Every structure is written in C-alpha cells, then in structure tokens.
Fold this protein.
Amino acid sequence: GKSYDEKEAIVDNVRERLWSATLIFSTKLEGINMPEINALRNSLPEGTNAMVIKNRLLKRAVRGSPWVEVNDAAKQSNLWVIIDSDLQGSIKAFKKWGKEAKKGEINVGILEGTVYDAKGVEAIGELPSKDELYAKIAGGIAALPTQIARLTKEAGGQKAARAVKLAVSPDA
C-alpha cells in the first residue's frame, strides 16, 4: 500500500486537476487493462486526463469543492476523465476509443454541479465549442453594420415611395 504522504500527494494532484476542470465523467474500470488506458490517454486532446483513483481518495479530493456530486458516483472501480476545455473533442475521442476497445460506456458526468447520465454527457459533446461560438458571435457582429445600412436604405425607400404616392393621390 501507499504511505499517508503518498496518498496526500495523490489527493493534492487530483484536487489541482479538478481546479481547472469543466467536466468530469466516469466509465467502469472493470475489464480495461493498462495498455487500453494508455491508448485512451494518448488519444485525448491536450488538457484532458484519464485517471484511475481509489474512491476514498477521490472523495477526499472533492471535499469542499464544486465536484462533491462525485461522491454519489464513486461507488465502484472507475476510470475518470477530467476535461479542462475541449468538451467536444474529448468526448469524441473517448467514444472513438470506446468503439475500438469495445469498452468504455459513460456512467455519469458532472458539469457545473449538475449530474448527467451517459446520454447527457454525449449531448454535451455535441454542443459547439467556445471557439465556434465566438466565431458565430464575431460573424454576427461583423454583419450588423451591413444589416443596419440595408434596413435604413429600405426604410428610406419606402418613405419616399409613400410620399410620392401621397403627393399624387392625397386620398390614399
């Protein structure tokens, strides 16, 4: 077994990883061997980690943090995936690894204090990334002056047509 100091170092490391995390989710560890875990780790984007940690140590790491919902999920041997920012890429990489290994169904995920089932985590993976949203917002902002000019021109044209119509036929 590990000494108390080694366990505290593990808890501190996990606590530090969770500090920058956006989403964490788990899969059953049962039937997954070390080469498969290493293959998963190598396939995940930068900023995403897959780790195996004893439930007792994980519960210690999340104590007093926004991740306390993990306590309900930490009941069996789990492989935890901790994602900093690339939710879409990380979940897609995990699903691809799961298909190739024929393992790795998502048990539970936690995002901003809310617990999600496998379908919820997969739906989160379908959402656009921050970069995609920023691009859409920037495109909308860039198009705004053109739209305003077009509306102003159309409104001015309509007013001119109405003025001509009133001048020609004041009863209209």
User: Anything to note?
Assistant: The beta strands are 23-28, 48-52, 78-83, 106-111, 114-116. Residues 74 and 119 are 19 Å apart (CA to CA). The first helix runs from residue 4 to 19.
